[in-house]
Amino acid sequence: MSGGNMKRIYLIGFMGCGKSAIGRRLSFLLKVPFYDMDKEIVRQTGMTIPEIFEKFGENHFRDLETEFLRNFQEEYCIISTGGGTTMRKINRRIMRETGLVLFLDAPFKEIWRRIHKDPNRPIVRRSTREEIEALFKSRYPYYKAAAHITVRTEFRSLRQITQYAAFQVIRLKGE
Ligand SMILES: Nc1ncnc2c1ncn2[C@@H]1O[C@H](COP(=O)(O)OP(=O)(O)O)[C@@H](O)[C@H]1O
Ligand SMILES: O=C(O)C1=C[C@@H](OP(=O)(O)O)[C@@H](O)[C@H](O)C1
Ligand SMILES: [Mg+2]
């Protein structure tokens, strides 16, 4: 496998694609520690994600994401990113240089079903379905380009996706 070292595993993709849920399960299966970037930011700031967006704005939240990636020290771990993390070039670079990047590719219809009622995602709260679909389409190429591996998740259970992701990780590390 060319480029980067393979110590960390980053899960990327749109809101609701399963990054947090798969990350936790993959961590059990591979026996490496799990970190959810959103949860780490909530813990470090003592504020919820909607509160950070309301009080300091989205740009500040983006800075906190980059700060997390720059400062995080743990070598062997699984990190679930937020849906917007992959949009910054510096974040893509850090992820690819420090680990293996897995894109969880889910269809928009399914994603919308999962996220549209969730009050903890401020971007969903303030937008229409059409706006979120446009965001999904605009972000898609960035996920594809940043990923070492794309995992198609449609019609697969969390358990099946976790097993498939683990298999791909082990295969690539062995190359
Ligand atoms: N393949 C799947 N099958 C069933 N439920 C899923 C699947 N992927 C994600 N979910 C569920 O969808 C919701 C959103 O997933 P989550 O892991 O929070 O997404 P993300 O962290 O990418 O925003 C959670 O309730 C999760 O359990
Ligand atoms: O897509 C985004 O811009 C965001 C995704 C969220 O994470 P999930 O992808 O885990 O929902 C969270 O970081 C924040 O609400 C912003
Ligand atoms: Mg998440």
UniProtKB/TrEMBL annotation:
Cofactor note: Binds 1 Mg(2+) ion per subunit.
Binding site for substrate: 38, 62, 83, 139
Gene Ontology CC, one term: cytosol
Name the record gives this protein: Shikimate kinase
Keyword entries, A-Z: Amino-acid biosynthesis, Aromatic amino acid biosynthesis, ATP-binding, Cytoplasm, Kinase, Magnesium, Metal-binding, Nucleotide-binding, Transferase
Natural source organism: Planomicrobium soli
Cofactor: Mg(2+)
Assembly, per entry: Monomer.
First-listed, main subcellular location of the protein, grouped into a coarse class: cytoplasm
Subcellular location: Cytoplasm
InterPro entries on file: P-loop_NTPase, Shikimate/glucono_kinase, Shikimate_kinase/TSH1
Protein's job: Catalyzes the specific phosphorylation of the 3-hydroxyl group of shikimic acid using ATP as a cosubstrate.
Annotated catalysed reactions: shikimate + ATP = 3-phosphoshikimate + ADP + H(+)
